[in-house]
Each structure stands twice: as C-alpha cells, then as structure tokens.
Amino acid sequence: RTTFKWLWRATYLSLFLGVGAVIYNGYSDRHPEEQFAPDPEKKTLVILGTGWGSVSLLKKLDTANYNVVVISPRNYFLFTPLLPSCTTGNIEHRSIMEPVRQILRHKKAAVKFYEAEATKIDYERKVIKISDNSDIKGTINETEVPYDMLVIGVGAENATFGIPGVRENSCFLKEIRDAQAIRTKIMDCVETAAFKDQDSSEIDRLLHMVVVGGGPTGVEFAGELRDFFDEDIKKLIPEISPRFKVTLIEALPTVLPMFSKQLIDYTESTFKEEHIEIKTKTMVKKVTDKTVEAQVTNPDGSKSMITIPYGLLVWATGNAVRPLIKDLMSQIPAQKESRRGLAVNEYLVVQGARDIWAVGDCAVAGYAPTAQVAAQEGGFLARLFNNMAKTEALESRIKELSSNLNLKPGNTAEITAEIEGLEKQLRRVQDVKPFNYSHQGSLAYIGSEKAVADIAWLNGNVASGGKLTYLFWRSAYLSMCFSTRNRVLVALDWIKAKLYGRDVSRE
Ligand code: FAD
Ligand code: NAI
Questions:
Q1: CATH fit for domain 32-156+321-387, picks 2.60.120.590, 1.10.10.350, 3.40.50.300, 3.50.50.100
Q2: Residue of the nearest CA to atom 15 in ligand 2?
C-alpha cells in the first residue's frame, strides 16, 4: 500500500511539473524579453535557409555579436522526421511547423528576416540576389543583400535523375505542401475507386499506391499508408479494402541500406505481414500519368521491363543539388571536382571561397545528409561564431590596455596582470577544435506500431526492432520537436487519431 501511495504521489508530482512546464513555456513564448537593435558597426552575418542546419545555428548564436539577416522562402522550421505522418493525417501539418519569427523574437538582439529565395550568390562582390516568389507581389520583388559572412543552409532538392515523367506525375515528400498533396490524392484515389459502377481494373489501378525509393523516406511513408488503410479507410469503406495495395520499388538489392542486416530483414518480413510488396533490384526508367515502367534484374542476371499501373505515385529517391549551389560551385575553381554539393573543410568553410560556410544537405563534409548531421553542424558554427566575436573583443581590449601601458608607464603591474589574464582567455577561446560529428543512431517507423533502431551505444551499436522500439521512436521524436508547443500539438494529434481515427475528408 505504501508503494502504491508513493507511486500515486510521483505520478501527481510529474503531472503537476509537466503541466507547470507547459504553462511556463507558453507564457514565456508569448511574453519574450525586450530585444535590442544590433550595432550597425558589427559585421553582417547572412544565413540562408530555415531548415535543420540554419535554425540550429540560430538557436545557439549570440545575435548581439553580429547584424544577423536570415533569408528563406519558408518562414518556418519544419520537423521533417514526422512529415510522413502528415501524409495520412496522423499528425496535422501545423504541429510540426515552428514560425521562424517566433524563434527570432526570442534572440537577444533583433534579427532581420526576409521571406525570399536566394537566386544567386556573387562571392566576388559578397552580395546575394534575392527574389520574393510568394503569390503576393509588392513593387520590389528582387533586390541584393550584402554580407560580411555567409552561411548557406539551403538543403537539397528531390533527385529525379532526369527520368521522364517523374516531375509531371509523381508526388515528392520533402515539404509540407508535398504531404498535403499526398493526403488529398490518397483520398481522391479512394473516392474515385468507390465511384458508382467504377470499372474493375480501374479500381485496382486507383488503389495501387506505388512508392519509389526504399530509403527511410519511402519505407516510413509506405508504413504510414498501410496503417491509414488498415486502421481507418478499411472501416469506413470496407467494400474496396481487399483491392488496396502498396508497392515499394527499390533499385538496390535491399531497402534501408544504411541499417544493419538484421533490421533490413526485420523490415522486409514486417512489410510482408503488412502486405506491402517490396520489389528490389527494380529501377524505374519512365513514368506516365497512370503507369511506372521499370527494369528488373532477374535472379539469373538478365534484365526485363515491367509496367506497373498506379493511382498514387510517391517519388522518394533521395537528394539532388539545388541550382543556387550548382551556380556557386561553377564560380569557384576549387569546387570543380565536387558533385554532391559544396565541398567544405573541417571548419565547414566552403573550399575556395572567403567568409562562406555551408551546413546540412547542401554541404559535402563526409557525412550522410541527415537532420542529425545538419543540426550538429549548425550548433558547431554557432560556437565558432560566438568564439570569433569573443576573440575580436578580447583582442581589441588587449590592444587598448597595451597602448595604456605605453601611455602610463607608472601603473604597469595591474594592467600587465589584466593583459595576462585576457591573453589566457584568448588562448582558450581561440582553441576551437574542428567539427566532429557524433552519430547517435538511426531510427525509422515501419508501420503497424513497429520501428527499427540502430543506436550508438558505448562505442558499439545496438540494433532493435518492434513495438518497444516504436515507443522509443515516439518518445525520441517527441522530445526532439522544436518547441513545447510542437510537443503538445503532436501528442494531442496522436491521441486524437487514436480516439477518433484519422480525418478522411478531402481538402
Ligand atoms: P532543410 O532542412 O531542407 O532546410 C533547407 C532550408 O533552405 C529550407 O528552409 C528551405 O526553404 C531553404 N531554401 C531552399 N532554397 C533556398 C534558397 N534558394 N534561398 C534561401 N533559402 C532556401 N533526418 C534525420 O536525421 N532523421 C530523420 O528522421 C529524418 N526524417 C526525414 C523525413 C523526411 C520525409 C525527409 C524528407 C527527410 C528526413 N530527414 C531525416 C533528413 C533531414 O530532413 C535533412 O537531412 C535535413 O532537413 C537537412 O537540413 P538542412 O538544413 O540542410 O536543409
Ligand atoms: P535515400 O537516398 O536514402 O534513398 C533513396 C533510394 O532510392 C535509394 O535506396 C536508391 O537506390 C533508390 N532509387 C534511386 N533511384 C531509383 C529508381 N530509379 N528506381 C528505384 N529506386 C531508386 O533517400 P531518402 O529516403 O529520401 O533519404 C534522404 C536522406 O534523408 C538520407 O540521408 C536519409 O538517411 C535521411 N532520412 C532519414 C530518415 C530517418 O532517419 N528516419 C527518414 C527520412 C530520410
């Protein structure tokens, strides 16, 4: 009984503390401290993008040290790991978006934000051309922004490898609008398949959801899609449920090549149970409005072509370099050999350029293009820039004291001691180690409330898959959400979907 009593008390206390934290966070979000205007004498630091790399930099940057300008066509940060859940309405899209103005309002010194796309970086003149590509146009839609220091964190675009028909006919899964388009299209296919007197072969085509790319994006989406069907659509429109089919097409011999062998096997067997067909060694060569044409490598090594009819096609074959980055690379001779993005050194400085750094998917630093890498790179640059500002401040103080020393030769002991102290601090501040990525592990949701995880543990690796890993996946991503507001919204969405089901109304 005593244990029971203590357990209740602990539950009450944690609930009380949790609610208290939510209220406190909400209050401080709505009542930020006064911000001061930055000193115009300070250097202008321009940051391109509001994704994982740039926002992690902004989070830790002391904005009082620079005139910070942020430029991005997206005025919010997007928590991409939960984007596949938005395609089926398991999570509402606004729950994983954090307005960038909200983030910037909490910085010590004010930061300028322009919702615009950088269209050209002129690294010789140190200016960026920007363009307002939103639907509402003012009288000025294009202008230039000069910089002293530039951080490029513009991410990557979807790779299509020039395969005909991909751009015109498939949905991507990178941005919020992609997830919304997929959600609408799933329901459109379902409702059209359920149309009175619908042709039988057309029902099969409309209810065939094809995913190209067996990387984590494709796998997570296929899992979410199957859940949506099994948990909601099947109950609401039972007559079409036996015809619903998900196929995942992958060019390589396995899906999730970055995970350990046992997790690949686990994913493949789970997909089999969930009736998700995996077609490996199958490379899509052409896409039309209703079919996918793919080349299959048969077990004897011979190749044959197959045609697969589809209702919804989601294209998830990884990243390609953005035109802005390609253009900058073509201006810098040292970037000639780089193919997958801006080659950077161990301090994330763009090779061959002055005062330009790059983070995340647009940079080639020898790591996978993941949020984890981008976030650590952004954090590293914040520490680097904070240190650079401290160095400058210390150097100028030392200079000032040294000249005092010359002017007032009688009062040297005190000044010399202060200079020595400052020099010590300076050596500590200047000792910045190169960027070193620390891999925490990989996680992926595979449907049916199961997840796979390769977690870095004591210089080794722990592989796990199943329902418990799914609970770990949920709590890990919930804790990684950008703000308390995001955490609360995501948790409420999960509860809402569990209690009432996903919303199947088509927007
Ligand atoms: P992004 O986060 O893509 O941000 C780029 C920013 O630049 C955006 O704000 C964009 O609007 C802006 N921009 C674009 N063009 C311009 C321009 N011309 N001028 C100015 N700004 C511009 N990684 C993980 O580690 N774990 C996961 O679970 C995970 N899940 C994912 C799920 C999905 C569906 C996807 C698509 C990716 C996932 N990733 C995950 C990968 C991760 O999202 C990326 O590696 C990460 O977003 C890269 O960060 P970034 O800052 O380089 O780019
Ligand atoms: P990816 O590059 O990881 O996988 C794309 C897959 O598409 C590859 O396996 C490739 O062989 C296949 N492919 C390419 N062309 C093809 C074709 N014509 N036909 C058939 N298959 C083809 O891309 P993804 O999944 O979009 O991930 C991008 C990055 O984001 C990766 O670094 C990934 O690790 C990260 N990410 C991480 C997640 C996680 O940790 N849970 C979730 C989503 C993305």
A1: 3.50.50.100
A2: 317
